[in-house]
Amino acid sequence: MSVFEKIFKQKGISLTASRLAVFNVLENASGHMTINGIFTAAKQLDPGLGLSTVYRTVNTLCSLNLLEKHEFPDIEAVYEKTAAAAKDHHHHIIDRDNGKIEEFSSCELDNLLRKIARQNGYDMLGHKIEIYGKKLQNK
Amino acid sequence: MSVFEKIFKQKGISLTASRLAVFNVLENASGHMTINGIFTAAKQLDPGLGLSTVYRTVNTLCSLNLLEKHEFPDIEAVYEKTAAAAKDHHHHIIDRDNGKIEEFSSCELDNLLRKIARQNGYDMLGHKIEIYGKKLQNK
DNA sequence: TTGAGAATGATAATCATTTTCAAATATAAA
DNA sequence: TTTATATTTGAAAATGATTATCATTCTCAA
How confident is the model at residue B87 (pLDDT cuts 50, 70, 90)? Predict the structure, then answer.
């Protein structure tokens, strides 16, 4: 059973066909997915699926901290599994030339952020890092 | 003459009363401003001002890299001067309990980000850092 | 099997933002 | 200055993403 299913069952939220279809798409997604991407893919699994249900399911997953919404300027919002649901934890580099999003991880960065939060009197619960850049030529 | 005015003049974009009113509000703002905050304040200076013009002016400032839009989940978007227009450069800590936004600066963090970008084959043009946290008790 | 509550899809409503457009204003040319 | 052209403006309409509504359909425990 998938992580999403496990948590829903645990919380007493029923595992309907619509929700399972959305889960399936999200759990097998390699990276970022837009609402419409999720909708289109999940509709293949559950043809009668409605867009409202996708929004509802996705919002529920977000409030359970299993999914995270990323909003970048001028780019359609994307969703992806949180560290709680996936193993890896990463951040984003957005290419200013073509809008492409790359990922990176850095423990050093995470530790520094935690330290900074503490210095400012906060216990860090989460963070969002976006680097905007331009691809280097000489490589 | 303010930075905004200087750049507009330099780019050949005319300095109309509406634009100067918006500039005035933004240049004298202490921190973050919402679109409606800007609109309300600038209307005092230029009573006939329309909301469309505020959006247009703010968008122009953003594309000139003089202003930056920050979008936080569940919070109205805010605008603030970029490092190019202001002297200081900072990031945000969002209090998960009350939604309050605090600011912090860290050269160490900026340098680390630049290094990470370079390691990933990018020249860093900008970045956005948000830490979500909970205020510590024992202080 | 049945009945109360939860979930659903279609549609309408909402909200921030953008576009349209005719009128007003600024700018340049003569 | 007068005139012609281009830019800017505010109001209103259009848009696009998201949320709310609501009648219908499903779930599942009794």
Answer: low
Measure CA to C1' and name the residue nearest D10: B50
- Identify which of A113, A123, A132 has the shortest CB distance to residue B125: A132
Compare CB distances from A122 to B71, B128, B133 and report the shortest one's residue: B133
Quick one: how far is CA B11 from the chain centroid?
Answer: 21
pLDDT band at B85 (very low <50, low <70, confident <90, very high): low
Contact A132/B129, CB-based, under 8 Å?
no
Contact A124 B118 (CB under 8 A): no
Cα B34 to Cα B78: distance, rounded to the nearest angstrom: 5
The pLDDT tens digits of the residues spanning A35-89 come to 999 999 999 999 999 999 999 999 999 988 899 898 877 778 899 888 766 666 7
DSSP state of A33: B
Alpha-carbon distance values, B9 to B5, B12, B46, B55, B59 (Å):
6, 5, 20, 20, 17
pTM over 0.90: no
Fold of B1-82: Arc Repressor Mutant, subunit A (1.10.10)
* Fold of the CATH domain A89-139: Dna Ligase; domain 1 (3.30.1490)
Chain A residues touching B119 at Cβ < 8 A: 104
- The pLDDT value recorded for residue B139 is 46
**For chain B, domain boundaries:** 1-82, 89-139
